[in-house]
Amino acid sequence: MRKFIIPIMVVAIIVALYEQVNAEKNVYIMVIAIVVFMMGMMQLSAKTPSKNQDKEDENV
Length: 60
Prior knowledge:
Elements lengths: L1 H20 L5 H19 L7 H7 L1
Helix pairs in contact: 1-2
């Protein structure tokens, strides 16, 4: 799954940067690229454990 998400995020970043350079900026393409990037970041960061997970387990 990670091998699938990272290339999609890179493509979204490239599209967003390309739209910034154009004289006629398309807002919808920018919004879609940002949403795709943020969704990919959420998917990747959801698998990262919390630093405070051990402390929370001890308090229970």
